[in-house]
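Predict the structure of Transposon-encoded protein TnpV.
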Amino acid sequence: MVQSIFEEMGGRYERQGEYILPCLTIPPEKEQSIDLFGRRHLDYLREYRKITYTNLLTSGRLNAYLADIDRQAQEHFERLIEGMKQAQGITECLKEENALEWTGRTNNIRACAREIVGKEIIFA
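Done. Here is the predicted structure for Transposon-encoded protein TnpV.
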């Protein structure tokens, strides 16, 4: 009996009632931690890039892809924060003199950096 391409690649079929269906499984994937940016990108893929999400999921590369996006976004986020702090002159001296102002300005910088990372990496 001639084998199909699926069978030649190591696949097998299973009988369910009158039908013979291929036994499809998702390849095992190394589990990597995904934080805020990776989860936001995952939500974006599920909602707006369904084909990309499905392709990554079925190929077994979704977790590695999201971990890479998360790492890139976190590094970019930290670089932006440091650059903005230097540009605005926010130092430890300001933190000692006026902690409330330092907190407000730092929170503003973090919000701006989060927005920039979202536009450049997460939702691109």
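The radius of gyration is 23 Å.
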